[in-house]
Amino acid sequence: MELIRINPGDNVAVALADISKGSVKTVDGVEITFLEEVKRGHKVAISDIKAGSPVIKYGFSIGNAQADIPKGSWVHTHNLKTGLGELLEYHYNKVDTPSARKDPAKFNGYVRSDGKVGIRNEIWIIPTVGCVNRPAELIAKLANEKLADGVDGVHAFVHPFGCSQMGEDHKNTQKLLAGLVRHPNAAGVLVLGLGCENNTIEQFTAAIGQYDPNRVKFLISQTVDDEIAEGVKIVEGLMKYAASFKRQPVEVSNLIVGLKCGGSDGLSGITGNPLVGRFSDMLIEQGGTTLLTEVPEMFGAETILMNRAVDEEVFQKTVNLVNGFKEYFIRHDQVVYENPSPGNKAGGISTLEDKSLGCTQKGGSSAVVDVLDYGDTVTKKGLNLLKGPGNDLVAATALTSAGAHIVLFTTGRGTPFGAPAPTVKVSTNSALAEKKKSWIDFNAGVLVEGKTMDEVSKDFFDYILRLANGEVQTNNEKHDFREIAIFKDGVML
Description:
This protein is an alpha/beta fold. It contains 13 helices and 23 strands. Strands 19-20-18-17-21-22-23 form a seven-stranded parallel sheet, with helices on both faces. Strands 1-2-5-8 form a four-stranded antiparallel sheet, with no helix packed on it. It has a four-stranded parallel sheet with strand order 13-12-14-15, with helices on both faces.
């Protein structure tokens, strides 16, 4: 198969391989003579499209033709422009969503003292301020040389903030870091402060809320003679505590999974994102939870999510989420719809609608049960929307802080980065999976090579259970590619 028409109503098809000028191909009974070369992942008109008319993909408009586009022509940024505006009014038109429930599968997790379940048994070092980043990293390095049996590793998550921030930025830093402190993949946490930062230990402790003093320890560097030696000593104690936890069977309804994409291509909305959407539905059917973020990549497809809100309250929260992010763009004098990156465009994505209609498929078809602010922790089972930008590191960090045990990251171009949580790189095409074996964990490209969604989604769900069990590691874990990034909007002193 060299061409695919995603929806019967589409007036474009997507090339699954490079197709040369003059080639004659057939899709859904329509014969097309290619008037120019069309690269893999890019679109070709399968009927004449008049100037000003909508270009239809996924059954929805992805923008308007800027000139007459003859059948067989390449359709991309040179002849297609977004049809999006800025702030819009929305109306709730609730659609039916799946309601059937299945008996949950089980995996072996770590049950913490507060009842939360982790899939890793790690020690995390969280600096309150960037000034102690290097001591935090050195403490982690030295502690890993003395790693206790039953402990998966010691990791420091450094960042540049915690001081000289004002207003919402300061609160967001505290919320984000507090979410990491509470994360159940960390059996123990050392909070490392300096002593004179804005984000004081006293303030930050209040942001964390209730905590287990056996699990969370604090160290103010300016109050001790040698913060490195003291930090290692504290972590050694935390490792003894962590080693007391053993894996035990728990229902998959305890699992929280973040949904993210980056470096998308023309196959992202055909393979990787639909696969993750099917996984999301399968997990939710068994009582689990998924988190969808990247608000700018909902623009143009937001009504699909809004109409799946469980009630009017969640619908209005979704409206506020979308319009609030549009206002953020407008406040900074940026156009709302300029989103596809150079890499996205090279891969065949032409407009924000094109990208968004592919991206939102990661949320499957389940009802939207809640909308979370940046830095919030998930509380409701089912599909949740989380405020966050499209930036890969910021969004993946926000998903982890909100409680995601695992982040599913679909990509058509590849990236090595990882969040604090295991970050599963799902390739949208087989060429990437073959080329970047040290980055890619699962290949969704087989969906256009003869394998069915039922087959691949079962394999993928089984892989996630093995990952949760600790039977396999993601590539970011193997290479210790773990980092955080925090959203910044305002003034820095």
